[in-house]
Design goal:
Chain lengths: 112, 111
């Protein structure tokens, strides 16, 4: 099992550019989520999905879109990158939302 | 708003000592409780789940006090490799977005 994989590991964008952060899991988990982690702020939930075809907003959803067309994949799209979106992004999955979550290795994003 | 509070530290502890952290949570309907460990520039990894009856795994012991709404983590005979940030995580008690992370407690084990 690869667990939760994320690509890319590092990315630098210019303000206004768009991009997609990829996340995949091979554990047949129903629940997937995206977090951002900033110094002094802890992990904050961006979007989550309780199953294929179902997504919802977390604490900080503005500027991001998600989709869940398959159980395995949960991409995060930045629509028009802003310097405030400079952060480390983690994708996580779990069997159900109340179970322990498994995290991917993260994507370090810098927006200039 | 659901809150999870932790002392950020850092806790500077000599190798071999015992160290304990507490974490308080605000949502009395919370269902699941976990301790995660996060090393610098790495992803959080599950250390242990916290059950109502407590949980022990080697040198690590976790306790849950529902009445006072806190969970604790005890590390005995601390090792240099225990140096990390420990995240308290509380799940449930609302919708599927119920996972709430504390900001973490930074532990430094000194030789």
């Amino acid at each position: 099992n690869a667990g939760v994989t994320q690509t890319p590991k590092f990315q630098v964008l210019k303000t206004g550019q768009s991009m997609t952060l990829q996340c995949a899991q091979d554990m047949n988990h129903e629940y997937m989520s995206w977090y951002r982690q900033d110094p002094g702020m802890g992990l904050r939930l961006i979007h989550y999905s309780v199953g294929a075809g179902i997504t919802d907003q977390g604490e900080v959803p503005n500027g991001y879109n998600v989709s869940r067309s398959t159980t395995e994949d949960f991409p995060l799209r930045l629509l028009s990158a802003a310097p405030s979106q400079t952060s480390v992004y983690f994708c996580a999955s779990s069997y159900r939302f109340i179970n322990e979550q498994f995290f991917g290795p993260g994507t370090r994003l810098t927006v200039l | 708003r659901k809150e999870v509070e932790q002392d950020p530290g850092p806790f500077n502890v000599p190798e071999g000592a015992t160290v304990a952290f507490n974490c308080t949570y605000s949502n009395s309907a919370s269902q699941s409780f976990f301790w995660y460990r996060q090393d610098c520039r790495k992803e959080p990894k599950l250390l242990m789940s916290v059950y109502s009856s407590g949980n022990e795994d080697g040198r690590f012991t976790a306790q849950l006090n529902r009445a006072s709404q806190y969970i604790s983590l005890l590390i005995r005979d601390s090792k240099l490799s225990d140096s990390a940030t420990y995240l308290c995580v509380v799940n449930g008690g609302g919708g599927a977005d119920g996972l709430t992370f504390g900001k973490g407690t930074h532990l430094i084990i000194q030789p």
